[in-house]
């Protein structure tokens, strides 16, 4: 089943034409992460987000006028045996929505993948297109919302509608994932909501997000998951010095340490 790739010539890829339906209602039945990815790519569950992602792709930014935008739901990226999740927010209009890969083709991705390369999770420090050779080892980049939202602000209902994808990914990674690095408050709230739905021991009141905050959760089946807060790698934080490369490295290195400890205790 070919999904197509963004190429030259402008416009956007057509909506996928999978056999049968695609959408979050089917996520619970996905037998692999690849199946979850295909459901994400074909999803049209949120009319506002579908309309916006396609509008952005049709209009395009001047610098990318000759490129074909992805214009679909953007799937997760990374190791299918990941010990660490990196949880973002949603695709960027002219980054992931253009390239079809998480944190690829924008300034946030430049910061994130450079840090993941320095800390041993990424094969290279740059991410410019889906076919640039980037490989993640030990980590998987996910998001609570898989379509670009207007003003980078998904509604609570859109986040809830998209949550079965993240929930199923967590279930499929249950044997390996031990740490979640959460980039920003939106991802923090969304991930905790999904974990609570899955029976994890989320405290009440909900733990507050903050850079460097650690929260260890337990599941009734004996698993544990440590959440690490990290300011989002957006230019709003990195260009002002609120978030430095060393701060990102420190969180990722702590995530690696905790994941390795968790694997030895299994």
Describe it.
Residues 13-24 have a biased composition (Low complexity). Keywords: 4Fe-4S, DNA damage, DNA repair, Hydrolase, Iron, Iron-sulfur, Metal-binding. This is Type-5 uracil-DNA glycosylase. It comes from Sanguibacter keddieii (strain ATCC 51767 / DSM 10542 / NCFB 3025 / ST-74). Residues 1-12 have a biased composition (Gly residues). The chain has 266 residues and is an alpha/beta fold. The protein has one domain: Uracil-DNA Glycosylase, subunit E (3-Layer(aba) Sandwich). It has helices at 33-41, 47-59, 96-99, 107-118, 156-172, 185-197, 235-238, 245-265, and strands at 77-78, 84-87, 139-142, 179-183, 214-218, 224-230. The chain has a six-stranded mixed sheet, with helices on both faces. A hairpin with a 5-residue loop joins strand 5 (214-218) and strand 6 (224-230). Helix 5 (156-172) packs across helix 6 (185-197). The longest helix is centred in the C-terminal third of the chain and has 21 residues, at 245-265.
Question: What is the strand and helix layout of this fold?
Answer:
Blueprint: H1 33-41, H2 47-59, E1 77-78, E2 84-87, H3 96-99, H4 107-118, E3 139-142, H5 156-172, E4 179-183, H6 185-197, E5 214-218, E6 224-230, H7 235-238, H8 245-265
Parallel strand pairs: 2-3, 2-4, 4-6
Antiparallel strand pairs: 1-3, 5-6
Helix pairs in contact: 1-5, 4-8, 5-6
Elements, N to C (H/E): HHEEHHEHEHEEHH
Range of helix content: 25-40%
Radius of gyration: 17 Å
CATH hierarchy: architecture: 3-Layer(aba) Sandwich
CATH fold assignment: Uracil-DNA Glycosylase, subunit E
- Report the β-strand fraction as a percent range: 5-15%
Q: How many alpha or pi helices? A: 8
* Physical arrangement of strands within the biggest beta sheet: 1-3-2-4-6-5
How would you name the CATH homologous superfamily?
A: Uracil-DNA glycosylase-like domain
Q: N-to-C terminal Cα separation, in Å? A: 36 Å
Low-confidence stretches: none
CATH class placement: Alpha Beta
Q: In one word, what is the shape?
A: globular
Number of domains: 1
Let me know the average pLDDT: 93
Beta-strand segment tally = 6
Q: Return the structural class.
A: alpha/beta
What kind of sheet is the major sheet?
Answer: 6 strands, mixed
Biased composition (Low complexity): 13-24
Domain Uracil-DNA glycosylase-like: 75-252
Keywords: 4Fe-4S, DNA damage, DNA repair, Hydrolase, Iron, Iron-sulfur, Metal-binding
GO molecular function: 4 iron, 4 sulfur cluster binding; DNA-deoxyinosine glycosylase activity; metal ion binding; uracil DNA N-glycosylase activity
């Amino acid at each position: 089943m070919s999904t197509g790739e963004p190429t030259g010539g402008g416009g956007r890829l057509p909506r996928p034409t999978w056999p049968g339906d695609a959408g979050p209602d089917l996520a619970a039945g996905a037998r692999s992460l690849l199946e979850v990815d295909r459901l994400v790519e074909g999803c049209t569950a949120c009319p506002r987000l579908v309309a916006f992602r396609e509008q952005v792709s049709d209009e395009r930014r001047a610098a990318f006028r000759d490129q074909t935008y992805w214009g679909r739901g953007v799937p997760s990226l990374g190791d299918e045996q990941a010990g660490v999740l990196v949880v973002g927010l949603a695709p960027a209009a002219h980054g992931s929505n253009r390239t079809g890969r998480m944190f690829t083709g924008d300034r946030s991705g430049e910061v994130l993948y450079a840090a993941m390369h320095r800390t041993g999770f990424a094969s290279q420090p740059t991410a410019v297109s889906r076919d640039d050779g980037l490989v993640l080892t030990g980590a998987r980049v996910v998001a609570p919302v898989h379509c670009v939202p207007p003003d980078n602000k998904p509604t609570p209902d859109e986040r809830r509608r998209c949550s079965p994808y993240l929930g199923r990914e967590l279930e499929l990674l249950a044997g390996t994932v031990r740490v979640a690095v959460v980039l920003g408050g939106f991802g923090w709230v969304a991930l905790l909501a999904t974990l609570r739905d899955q029976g994890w021991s989320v405290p009440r009141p909900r733990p507050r997000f903050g850079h460097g905050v650690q929260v260890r959760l337990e599941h009734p089946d004996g698993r544990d998951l440590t959440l690490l807060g990290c300011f989002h790698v957006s230019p709003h934080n990195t260009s002002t010095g609120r978030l430095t490369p060393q701060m990102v490295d420190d969180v990722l290195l702590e995530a690696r340490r905790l994941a390795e400890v968790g694997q030895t205790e299994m």
